[in-house]
Design brief:
The complex is a heterodimer of chains A (about 190) and B (about 675). In chain A, about 45% of the residues lie in helices and about 20% in strands. Chain A has about 190 residues and is α/β, with parallel strands linked by helices. Chain B starts with 8 loop residues before the first helix and ends with a helix. In chain B, the strands form 4 sheets. Chain B has an 8-stranded mixed barrel, surrounded by 5 helices. In chain B, strands 6-7-5-10-11 form a 5-stranded mixed beta sheet, with helices on both faces. Chain B contains 19 helices and 20 strands. The chains are: A alpha/beta (about 190), B alpha/beta (about 675). The interface of A and B includes residues 28, 32 and 176 of A.
Chain lengths: ~190, ~675
């Protein structure tokens, strides 16, 4: 942490706070409506991503948390719009759409938005053992070697966790999260 | 064991201990229960708080990920907490997110987060936090059912403990009261022993608490004091008893004890068919000693007499002093009649040795009467009376002798007693008269003197001779008053004679030795002479030899004083009494009166004649005149003149007369000289 960055953070303090408040209200408003109507699945998933960061422990402490988004569609935009600049556990969130290789290195979370299995598998192969939390929203994501899958089942979004993949990536997932999740072994989801 | 009587100390102590225990424990229990209630309520709150915090933490993720099912499952963990009625989880916006109800149709959670105030349902609302971020709120509400159950349970235990404590308290009270009430009960028992059983040995052990100790010591001291007083009282009682039964002076049994012993001994003798005897001992002339030398000398003499008598009385017999100079001896067992006389004579013998009392040599004798059981009398009273009668008979028969009771003596005592009372009454009524018997000079036949003689004429019994009433008067002490009366009457009478005769005419008055021994006798005589106006030389006092009994020296002193007054003194009834000639020259007698007994068969060459002749010579030789009494014949008169007797008296010459003036008148009319004897001859 450099002095300049600290200064910057301070310079944007009030602005950040205001934004945080807005987002909290928004998420609260959304989440309260979630069980009743799943209008904006992407928004919910974005909120889930934000919340996931709080239940996962990375081996290296960082004051920034970069979320890389892989895949096409509005999800990337939604994530950027909703999470960019927010703070999770005192870490500033940055959202990078379609990161290049260099950017990929600095990512803590890699979101695979509606990505086909092959692409997912190749990407995961590249980031394996790099302590990157891989999150995807396809049914096959866990089977493809992803760590957390956010799968829509009926009205709700189910969280699937591949513990082996998480362990391989040296990530600790909170038991609180695991309590809510479906634990899936390699080769197929298991509860 | 322990007697719990109503209102007893023990009962009170037990009650106090039990009440105290109950009060203390009850208060403690109440405080404990109250505190426990407060504590358990606050611990319930804190438990709820902890529970809410833990559950909140656990449900944070569920809130994060809007997992109502998971949240409900988490809340379901409250099943393990029976007091919790419901748990309501609210999300960040305050909307109900998940709920838990203990009872199937339990109270529903309010839709929005509102504080529910219900005193019967402790409620806790805790925020669900993740780090600093508030995710929502968890409301936990419990009821007091379990708390109350627990409280009721505690109350039951408390009551049980209270009950047990009450029992234990009562029991320890019983033990405690022993230490307190036992000494008191001991005291009460000891007091009972003292007051009811008069057991003054009763003491209590000094132990226990200080107060009890003090009480016990006080009690012991009190009993000791009582014991001392009791023993002093018993001593005094014993002394009184002794004094009641014994003569204080001699220590001999007194009349009461004597009567008691006599009754018992007679009863025993009757049963065992034995004989018993009673000796009645009376000292001769003791009254004289008492009156002349004083009571203390008399008492000292009595003590010595008692000591001597005791020496001669057997163990089985009883010597008692009835009072005055009267002693009795009960002979418990006698085999022969003579045995009693033997004992009586041995008593006389031991008394015959002269006594030395306060420097005085005293010779005393006794008269003893004997009565025998069952020969003479069968009752104690009769025996007593008979012995008394026999004793008086002994006295009448010349004293210093022993006499058995004979039926002829029977009435004597009563007669004597009667006589004494009669004499007393007669003196009071003035029945005692004075008669005068003339005395003549032998050679000149001139009337020289009248002898005054007391005469008692009883209104019914008639004339009572002096030989009968003078001894009674002497025994009873009436002689003092009687003597003084006669002396005064005689002096007054003699004073009147002097106006009718031309020469001094004397009056002779007899003086009892008891009278003479009185301390103020000389003063009494002086006083009588003074107020009758009689010249002392016209009075001749006639004394018997018994005046010597009180001591010749003392008698001589009194006589010298009388001589100094000018009173003439004559020795009366010479030759019958003491008859110790040696004292005669030492006493200032003017005249000797020869007793009439010498005049029996008085002839020139008989023994009596020689005796009278010798006595006349003797009297003349020591400077005394001789008066011969009892002259009844002219022959006697002739011989008296032959022997040289100075004066004569007798029936030949003149009988006692209540009217001496008639004799005087005859004397005066028949001429100055010697016709009286002639007239006497003529009358004969």
């Amino acid at each position: 942490m450099s002095l300049g960055e600290t200064f910057d953070t301070r310079g944007t303090c009030s602005k950040l706070r205001l934004r945080t408040a807005v987002w909290i209200l928004l998420i609260a408003a959304l989440s309260s409506k979630l069980p009743a109507q799943l209008q904006d699945e992407q928004t919910v998933k974005a909120a889930f991503v934000f919340n996931l960061t709080k239940y996962v422990e990375w081996p290296r402490a960082d004051h920034e948390l970069t979320i890389g988004v892989i895949g096409e569609g509005l999800m990337g935009e939604t994530l950027k719009r909703l999470l960019e600049g927010r703070k999770s556990e005192e870490r500033l969130i940055r959202v990078v759409l379609s990161p290049n290789n260099e950017q990929l290195e600095s990512c803590s979370v890699l979101y695979f938005a509606q990505s086909p299995s092959k692409r997912v598998q190749s990407m995961i192969g590249r980031v394996q053992n790099k302590s990157i939390l891989t999150v995807g929203d396809t049914d096959s994501f866990i089977g493809d070697g992803g760590i957390i899958g956010l799968v829509r089942t009926g009205d709700a979004v189910q969280i699937q966790v591949n513990l082996e993949a998480a362990q391989a990536a040296h990530l600790n997932i909170s038991s609180h999260l695991l309590n809510l999740s479906k634990i899936v072994r390699k080769g197929g989801p298991k509860s | 064991m322990i007697h719990l009587r109503r209102n007893s100390l023990a009962q009170r102590i037990v009650a106090i201990v039990m009440t105290g225990t109950a009060l203390a424990l009850g208060t403690m229990m109440a405080a404990f229960l109250l505190l426990d209630n407060i504590n358990s309520q606050s611990s319930l709150i804190s438990h709820l708080t902890t529970l809410a915090d833990v559950l909140g933490q656990n449900s944070a993720a569920a809130l994060d990920f809007s997992d109502r099912r998971a949240a409900a499952e988490i809340l379901n963990a409250l099943r393990a907490e029976p007091p919790v009625v419901r748990g309501c989880l609210y999300d960040q916006s305050g909307a109900l997110f998940a709920e838990y109800q203990r009872d199937a149709p339990g109270p529903p959670c309010p839709e929005g987060l509102t504080h529910i105030a219900d005193p019967n349902r402790p409620t806790v609302v805790r925020p669900v936090m993740r780090h600093d971020e508030r995710l929502g709120d968890l409301l936990l509400q419990s009821d007091l059912r379990e708390l109350r159950e627990r409280w009721r349970h505690l109350l039951e235990i408390a009551v049980l403990i209270l009950f047990i404590a009450h029992l234990v308290g009562g029991f320890s009270g019983l033990i405690l009261q022993r230490s307190v009430s036992k000494p008191i009960r001991d005291l009460a028992a000891a007091m009972h022993a003292v007051t009811v059983e008069s057991c003054f040995d009763a003491r209590v052990v000094v132990s226990g608490s200080a107060e009890i100790e003090q009480l016990a010591m006080g009690f012991n001291a009190m009993v000791e004091e009582l014991e001392q007083r009791e023993s002093a009282r018993r001593k005094a009682e014993a002394q009184l008893q002794y004094q009641a039964m014994n003569d204080v002076l001699t220590g001999l049994p007194n009349r009461r004890l004597f009567a008691d012993r006599l009754t018992k001994i007679l009863a025993l003798a009757e049963r065992e068919k034995r004989s018993a005897g009673l000796l009645y001992v009376d000292l001769d002339g003791f009254k004289l000693v008492n009156d002349s030398l004083g009571h203390s000398t008399g008492d000292a003499l009595l003590v010595q007499v008692a000591e001597r008598l005791r020496l001669r009385v057997r163990e089985a017999d009883t010597l008692a002093r009835l009072g005055g100079d009267e002693f009795t001896v009960i002979l418990a067992n006698i085999r022969a009649t003579e045995e009693a006389a033997l004992v009586a004579r041995s008593l006389l013998e031991i008394l015959s040795t002269p006594f030395t009392v306060e420097g005085h040599q005293l010779t005393i004798s006794a008269s003893i009467g004997i009565s025998l059981f069952p020969d003479c009398a069968t009752t104690a009273a009769d025996l007593m009376q008979q012995a008394d009668s026999a004793m008086y008979a002994a006295k009448r028969n010349g004293r210093n002798r022993v006499m058995y009771f004979t039926p002829e003596l029977g009435s004597f005592v009563r007669e004597r007693l009667n006589l004494e009372n009669q004499l007393r009454a007669a003196m009071a009524r003035g029945e005692i008269d004075v008669h005068y018997q003339p005395e003549f000079e032998v050679t000149s036949r001139r009337l020289v003197r009248f002898e005054a003689l007391a005469r008692w004429t009883h209104p019914t019994l008639g004339s009572i001779p002096p030989s009968k009433f003078i001894p009674v008067a002497e025994e009873s002490g009436l002689i003092v008053g009687l003597g003084a009366y006669v002396l005064e009457r005689a002096c007054a009478e003699a004073r009147t004679w002097q106006d009718h005769v031309g020469y001094p005419l004397q009056v002779a008055v007899n003086v009892s030795s008891i009278q003479f021994a009185r301390e103020h006798f000389v003063e009494e005589v002086t006083e009588i002479l003074r107020h009758t106006g009689l010249q002392p030389n016209l009075l001749q006092l006639e004394l018997t030899e018994s005046v010597m009994l009180t001591g010749a020296h003392r008698a001589a002193e009194t006589m010298k004083k009388l001589k100094a007054l000018g009173v003439g003194l004559a020795i009366d009834d010479f030759g019958t009494g003491y008859s110790c000639l040696s004292y005669l020259p030492t006493l200032p007698f003017d005249a000797m009166k020869i007793d009439r007994s010498f005049l029996k068969d008085l002839r020139a060459n008989t023994g009596n004649g020689a005796m009278v002749h010798s006595l006349v010579t003797l009297a003349h030789n020591i400077g005394m005149r001789v008066i011969v009494e009892g002259v009844e014949t002219p022959e006697q008169m002739h011989l008296i003149r032959e022997f040289g007797g100075n004066e004569a008296q007798g029936y030949l010459l003149g009988k006692p007369t209540p009217d001496p003036m008639s004799v005087l008148a005859k004397q005066l009319t028949s001429g100055e000289r010697g016709d009286v004897a002639d007239s006497a001859n003529a009358t004969r």
